[in-house]
TrEMBL record:
Superkingdom classification of source: Bacteria
Listed name of the protein: Uncharacterized protein
Phylogenetic placement of the source organism: Bacteria, Pseudomonadati, Pseudomonadota, Gammaproteobacteria, Lysobacterales
Amino acid sequence: MDITELLNRIRQINVDALKDAAVAYGPCILEPALCDDEGNVVGDGDLGLPCRVDLVPADDDEAEPITVDTETHLEFEALELDCEGVPVIMRPFSWDNALFLIQRNGVVDWAPLADWFWQWFDAESENSEDEDGMLGVVHFMSDPEPTDGGYSFVVDFGSAPPECFLDLIDALVDLQAEQIEVQLP
């Protein structure tokens, strides 16, 4: 199995959970971005990044956003890839809750990471729905937190395609990560 096929299988667990929830809740809005009263996306944290929720029931103006957590994840043997000389270690993770650990010393300019997020977030809601009603967007990324020898952050890839994951790895290589790990939190 190649990396894209593996990522598709990991992603499909999350997409299936979103589809099942949409059926269970009835008419709903899938993957809406959180916005202010004027309809502008609302950012938070040090990087000022917005987020999307999984779904909101469409028939209730007072409805609270619904978070869909996948109950399972794909089991696979840890694997190590090389991306431009940077080891990338992949352990089992969930598409909606992936912990990234990067080894990197010194001060980091997080612009490539924020740029990656904005590209895949689709703040202008220009993406078309696919056959499942999904937008192919990332939902959330936490601010990077210092760890011993690097940083960690969590990503909810939402319904974004495998290319989104691969683009994130490229952004982390651009940040001069010395090693990248992805796993369950």
